[in-house]
Each structure stands twice: as C-alpha cells, then as structure tokens.
C-alpha cells in the first residue's frame, strides 16, 4: 500500500486543525455541560434519554456540517489556490491525492466524534452518576454516525471534483435529505400502482445512499440493544458505497484539466 | 546516444469556449521541441503565448488535445518520471497554514526520504534560497518574493535532473533576481537541465544556452541567443556630460536626449569619430561608447508585431 495517501491525509488533518475546525468541540462541551445541569433540574427519570439524544444528535449535526462544508472544498480549494500544481509535479497519482484528502477529513471527523463522545459520557456520568451495560449502544450509535459521515464526505468529495462549493453543498445536502427518506420514495412507487413509476422509485431507492439505517439514536437513548447484524451490514454498506464514490471521484479527477 | 532531456512532438492544446462550449480556442499549436541534457533553455513569449500551458502540459496539470512529450525518455503520463523533475509554477501559492520548514518536509515525504534525510535537505534548501531565518514562519505571512524563493526550494529539494521554472524572476527584487540567477547557473553547473519561461529577455540572454520563442501558441524560432539574432552592429551610442552652460553641438541636434546632466546620442558606426570630434570641441566629457546590436528583445518585439526598439526608448543607465 502506497504511503502517499497517508502523507496527504495527515496534511489535510493538519489543515483542519490549523483552521480551527476542532474549535467546535468547545461549543459542544459547553452545550453538554449546560444540558447536563439543566436536565438534572427539570427532568425526572428521563435525564439519561435526554442527554443521550441531545449528545448523539449534536455529534451527528456537527459532523454533517463539517463533512459537507469542508468536504466540498477539499479538491476545489486546491485547484482554486493552485496549491495542486506543485503537488502534482511530485510523484503522486491523482487517485492517491483523492484517497488522501478523503482520509484526512475522515480522520478529522473521527477525532471530532471521539472527543464529542467522551464529552457525552462525562455529561452522562454527571446526571446518572454511573454507566450501564446498555451504554455500549451509545458507542455503536456514534460509530454509525461516523459511517454516515464517511459517506457524506465521499459524496461531497465527489462533487468537489467537478463542481463549485456552492453547487456541491446543494447536491450533497440534497442527496443526504433524499437518502434519509429513501424508504418513503420506494413506498410512494408502490402506492402509485404504475409499474414504470414503481420501477423508477425502486431504482432511486437503491441508488441513493440509505442514511436512515445509520440512525440508531433512539435505540441508544433508551438503552435498547442494537442488532449485531446491523453493525456489519452498515459497515459493509458504507464501505462499499464509499469505495464506489472514491472510484468515481478518482476517475473524474484523473481526467480533469485543471485551470 | 542518450534521449533528450525534453522531447516535445506536435503538442497541441485546445480549450472549449463559449456558453455551450461548442467553440475551441487553440492555446498551443503543434509545438515540437528538443532540449538537451544539461542545457539551460529559455522559453520566451509575451503573455498568452502558451508558455505556461506548455509547462502545465509537461507537468500533467492539464492534458494535451494531441501530441506527445517525453522527459528523459519517459512519457509525461508516467507519474514515476516526476522523481526526476522539479517544477516552480507561475506565481506559486502553497499551503499557507504551513511554515516554510513544514512545507518542504511535506513535499520531501513524497520522495520517501528518511526523517533525518528530510531534515537535512530542508535546512540545506532553506539556506540556499535565503529563508533559514523564516523557516518557522507560516507561509500566509510570506511576501511574494519569499513565496517565489520557497517555490524554488521545493522545486529542487529532491535534486531533480530536469528543473522547470515558470517565470522564476517574477516578483523578485534585484537582489532576489540575482540570487535566482545564481541558483540557475549552479543547477546548470551541476549538469542539470533547466527549462524556464520568462519575458525578461536579459535574463534569458545571460543564462540560456538556447532559447525558444513562442507567440500565439506557435513556435517562432529556436536557437542560441546569438544565433537567432544578428550580431551586426547597427549604430553606436555615446554617453556624455556637458559643463554647465555648454551647448550640445548643433550637428547632433535633436538626436540628443538627456537625463539630468547626462546626454545620450545614437550615431551611425561610420559617423562615430566625427561625432566624438564635435563633442570634444564642445568640451564634453565622454562617459562611454556602446555598440548597438539587435538584441533578443528586438527579435522578440519584431515577432510579436511591435515596433523595433528605437534608441529613443533606451534608458540612460549612469552605471
């Protein structure tokens, strides 16, 4: 395995850190502290559910914002600022650059998610004074959020290879929202009773990334077990989808004339 | 016989233009060129001539519409060939969140050097371009000249056999330009091939074994600077000073131009001694006599369709 993508990834991570992207952790920490104190005072018996829901939802929202807004600029910014010119004159293949940029942002998101998860556990300890066996589900839910972020990053990176940040943001957001409701799209097709529309809706359902399956926040909040099958299914699904998107990104970018 | 350092065959680049991208604009038109190993080769042309397009094609930043190019016998599509080349883009810009030291270290990692070797190289090349003291400064605080220097350092960091420099003197002060000239001469002395684009013709005349002139995407001529321009003297320029109150000899009349107390006149070669006699008669102090030859600049201007340099446009340089 070439180490060049790793070199690019580390630099992408360093860029995110230097651009103070991880400062959002401070805001998250304040949010968790505030929520823990407030929830302790106003809710009886459901502190744990509220904290877990709020914490995991925040991890997801913060992550999605980062994945989209940094992801859409990953390639575009390098072309616009012409930092790529010197880089491409080095012995680096374009696909290595793409994989490195993806890896760098994923690393940033993983670090961000990990610290937020730690913050969530600290808040949980504060309100419930102990951790339960069922709390392992929170870690699994955070892992699913990270898988979802990997998918969003790959989508944003793909659009970043040929489109402006504004359009890439719209495309990525659009696909994310459609992916959340992809099951509804299939059901609409079934309701129409038209074979053509049904087939088209089914095709869209399969083509769109299914983000709904990654959301187990409610299960984790109630301390209910997350099916083991979902763990490997989601992992495999995200890995395959990311691989396809990275291949498509590399193919588009490898044939692209830079400015 | 070894392969040429750079071999370009009928390289053409068209860009799609217009709202529907239905039209094409030719930026480079069937460029064929060979650059020998160890040569300092100047690539001259006005803005929009296709110089940067050529360099981008050779670097794989853009792809040719047709034609091929090889560097040290290997196709430009072969990324492994990039181990042998260094490139300074025009108006370079680098990751501004990195320090100069971090940038060079980052680029050195692509060549697989050990940490110790990287450290050594980074210091050596920072020193070479005069940026040792600014090694820990983030590039966002760098001036244009400093950016140019770090750009040169990253281009030669891995001891490439062929170095491509796109307008390397751009944005540099006279001291910086002198330093870059010295670096190019040193690279040449080390036997490396240096291919650089410039519109500063004196630099090309001073540094290049051969030059190519590109206008409107088409190659106009290739050769040693003294091959592509005639060495025939077409006039003599006399620089002189007059004592306060003294008048310019009437026969030289309106041909004389002056800056401050210094005067300049261009006369035909055959009329030099007569002009000097007249100036002697006017008690003028002769500062210098310079033979006028068509320069690379004249050749260049002729090609781009502008008027040949006239003596009236030559600035008097008291030095």
Describe it.
The complex is a heterodimer of chains A (259) and B (319). Chain A has one domain. Chain A is built from 12 helices and no strands. Chain A has helices spanning 4-18, 24-42, 47-71, 76-80, 83-88, 94-128, 136-160, 165-180, 182-192, 195-207, 217-221, 228-254. In chain A, α2 (24-42) packs antiparallel against α3, α6 (94-128) packs antiparallel against α12 and α9 runs antiparallel to α10 (195-207). Chain B is an alpha/beta fold and 319 residues long. Chain B has 2 domains: 37-63 and 74-228, Rossmann fold; 235-313, Alpha-Beta Plaits (2-Layer Sandwich). Chain B has helices at residues 51-59, 100-109, 115-128, 144-156, 174-189, 201-207, 225-228, 272-281, 296-303; strands at 6-17, 23-35, 40-44, 66-71, 74-75, 85-88, 162-166, 193-198, 210-215, 218-223, 235-241, 257-259, 262-267, 285-292. In chain B, the strands form 3 sheets. Chain B has a 6-stranded mixed sheet with strand order 6-7-8-3-9-10, with helices on both faces. A 4-stranded antiparallel sheet of chain B has the order 2-1-4-5, with helices on one face. In chain B, a hairpin with a 2-residue loop joins β9 and β10. In chain B, α2 crosses α3. Chain B is globular and about 75 Å long. The model of chain B is unreliable at 307-319 (pLDDT under 50).
Chart the SSEs and their pairings:
The complex is a heterodimer of chains A (259) and B (319).
Chain A: H1 4-18, H2 24-42, H3 47-71, H4 76-80, H5 83-88, H6 94-128, H7 136-160, H8 165-180, H9 182-192, H10 195-207, H11 217-221, H12 228-254
Helix pairs in contact in A: 1-6, 2-3, 2-6, 3-6, 3-7, 6-7, 6-12, 7-8, 7-12, 9-10
Chain B: E1 6-17, E2 23-35, E3 40-44, H1 51-59, E4 66-71, E5 74-75, E6 85-88, H2 100-109, H3 115-128, H4 144-156, E7 162-166, H5 174-189, E8 193-198, H6 201-207, E9 210-215, E10 218-223, H7 225-228, E11 235-241, E12 257-259, E13 262-267, H8 272-281, E14 285-292, H9 296-303
Parallel strand pairs in B: 3-8, 3-9, 6-7, 7-8
Antiparallel strand pairs in B: 1-2, 1-4, 4-5, 9-10, 11-13, 11-14, 12-13
Helix pairs in contact in B: 2-3
């Amino acid at each position: 395995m070439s180490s060049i993508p790793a070199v690019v990834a580390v630099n992408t991570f360093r860029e995110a850190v230097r651009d103070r992207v991880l400062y959002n952790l401070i805001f998250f920490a304040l949010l968790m502290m505030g929520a823990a104190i407030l929830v302790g005072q106003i809710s009886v018996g459901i502190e744990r559910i509220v904290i877990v829901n709020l914490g995991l939802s925040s991890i997801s929202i913060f992550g999605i914002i980062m994945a989209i807004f940094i992801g859409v600029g990953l390639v575009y910014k390098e072309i616009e600022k012409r930092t790529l010119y010197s880089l491409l004159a080095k012995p680096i293949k374009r696909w290595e650059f793409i994989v490195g940029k993806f890896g760098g942002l994923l690393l940033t998101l993983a670090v961000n998610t990990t610290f937020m998860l730690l913050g969530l556990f600290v808040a949980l300890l504060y309100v419930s004074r102990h951790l339960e066996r069922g709390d392992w589900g929170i870690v699994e839910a955070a892992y699913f959020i990270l898988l979802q972020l990997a998918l969003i990053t790959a989508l944003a990176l793909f659009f970043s290879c040929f489109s402006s940040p504004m359009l890439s943001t719209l495309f990525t957001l659009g696909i994310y929202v459609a992916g959340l409701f992809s099951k509804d799209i299939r059901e609409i097709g079934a309701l129409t009773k038209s074979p053509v529309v049904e087939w088209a809706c089914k095709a869209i359902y399969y083509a769109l990334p299914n983000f709904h399956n990654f959301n187990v926040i409610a299960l984790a909040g109630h301390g209910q077990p997350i099916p083991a099958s979902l763990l490997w299914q989601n992992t495999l699904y995200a890995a395959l989808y990311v691989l396809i998107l990275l291949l498509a990104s590399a193919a588009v970018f490898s044939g692209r004339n830079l400015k | 016989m070894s392969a040429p350092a750079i071999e370009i065959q009928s390289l053409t680049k068209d860009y799609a233009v217009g709202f529907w991208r239905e039209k094409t604009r030719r930026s480079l038109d069937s460029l064929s060129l060979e650059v020998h190993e160890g040569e300092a080769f100047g690539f001259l042309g006005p803005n929009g001539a296709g110089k940067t397009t050529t360099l981008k094609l050779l670097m794989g930043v853009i792809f040719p519409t047709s034609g091929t190019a090889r560097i040290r016998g290997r196709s430009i599509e072969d990324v492994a060939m990039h181990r042998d080349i260094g490139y300074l883009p025009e108006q370079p810009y680098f990751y501004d969140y990195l320090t100069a030291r971090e940038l060079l270290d980052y680029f050195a990692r692509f060549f697989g050097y050990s940490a110790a070797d990287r450290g050594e190289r980074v210091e050596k090349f920072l020193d070479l371009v005069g940026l040792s003291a600014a090694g820990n400064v983030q590039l966002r605080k760098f001036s244009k000249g400093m950016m140019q220097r770090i750009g040169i350092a990253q281009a030669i960091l891995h001891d490439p056999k062929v170095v491509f420099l796109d307008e390397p003197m751009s944005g540099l002060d006279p001291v910086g330009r002198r330093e870059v000239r010295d670096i190019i001469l040193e690279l040449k002395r080390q036997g490396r091939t240096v291919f650089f684009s410039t519109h500063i013709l004196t630099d090309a005349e001073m540094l290049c074994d051969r030059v190519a002139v590109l206008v409107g995407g088409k190659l106009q001529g290739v050769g040693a600077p003294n091959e592509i321009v005639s060495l025939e003297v077409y006039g003599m320029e006399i620089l002189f000073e007059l004592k306060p109150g003294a008048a310019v000899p009437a026969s030289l009349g309106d041909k004389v131009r002056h800056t401050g107390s210094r005067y300049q006149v261009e006369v035909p070669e055959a009329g030099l001694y007569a002009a000097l006699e007249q100036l002697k008669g006017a008690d003028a102090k002769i500062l210098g006599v310079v033979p006028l030859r068509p320069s690379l600049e004249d050749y260049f201007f002729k090609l781009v369709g502008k008027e040949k340099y006239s003596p009236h446009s030559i600035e008097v340089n008291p030095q």
